[in-house]
Amino acid sequence: MTVPIIQIASISKQFTSKPVLDQLDWEILPGQVIGLLGRKGAGKSTLLACMLGLQETDGGAVSVFGEPAANLSPQARAKVAYVPHTCDLFEWLSPLQMLDYFKTLYPHWNSAKVEGLLARWGFDKIMRKRPISQLSAVEKQRLSIVRALAHDPQLLVLDEPMSALEPAARRDFLRELFDGFIERGTTIVFSTHVLSDLERVASEVAFLKTGKIALQGGLDELLQSARRVTGPGRLLDRFAVSGELRRSKDLDGITQIVTSAASGELLALAEREPAIRIEHLTLADLFVEVTQ
């Protein structure tokens, strides 16, 4: 049996009186590349921070590499990299000074990777010696990514890592992820609002809603099996379709969202009742249906 890299058991978190995470359970296995999706304010950043022990939970337990997330050993912490949504760089240092400092914290440091990324992303000799406070938001985000990738982590956690990057830089970053980490079996968890980016690299997708993981599965499998079934209420009330995720009723009839019904079951239903319509769902469709 494969041992999860991350185990989350019934964690809760609230700010003032607003619950953000509610008895959330989640497991992440070695080598998975998981895209975390949710509406704005759903708690994605909070979940990722709690997952790494960077925010204290109000209950529950989190372990990373078999250790309590809030008290990781130096050996376990050296296997982890995190790119937060808001850059947390040492802005009084230059890029070279900051990278030299972080180099001392890790037993392994890939200097060739650092040099390659800095060169590709336009960090010339002048920019490398300029205070980080004088860099643009895009340059800071690129530098944050360089810092995270430099020690070849086994677990890479990214919170909207490409939000400030232009399309060309996003493609370059995704290529770096695929060539340097995904093919090597690195476990990656990332949140993003750019669904096309997620579809390029993620093998799994998880949807966060009302403080829980509402749905998780293989991306290809979900897109293959997810359907919208619509028809008159008098018909759909009589049929039970397996894998129902959500059901709604209006004046036009009933709409069901199903994520694991057998294709033969749906085809038989449509052939038996021509008034019933069955549609494939895109990732954007599924996002709307799961999170609304």
TrEMBL record:
Keyword tags: ATP-binding, Cell membrane, Membrane, Nucleotide-binding, Transport
Molecular function terms from GO: ATP binding; ATP hydrolysis activity
Source organism superkingdom: Bacteria
Source species taxonomy: Bacteria, Pseudomonadati, Pseudomonadota, Betaproteobacteria, Burkholderiales
Gene3D superfamilies linked: P-loop containing nucleotide triphosphate hydrolases (3.40.50.300)
Native source species: Massilia eurypsychrophila
InterPro entries: AAA+_ATPase, ABC_transporter-like_ATP-bd, ABC_Transporter_VariousFunc, P-loop_NTPase
Keyword ATP-binding included in the entry's annotation: yes
Domain ABC transporter per the UniProt entry, residue ranges: 6-235
A Pfam family annotated for this UniProt entry: ABC_tran
Name of this protein: ABC transporter ATP-binding protein
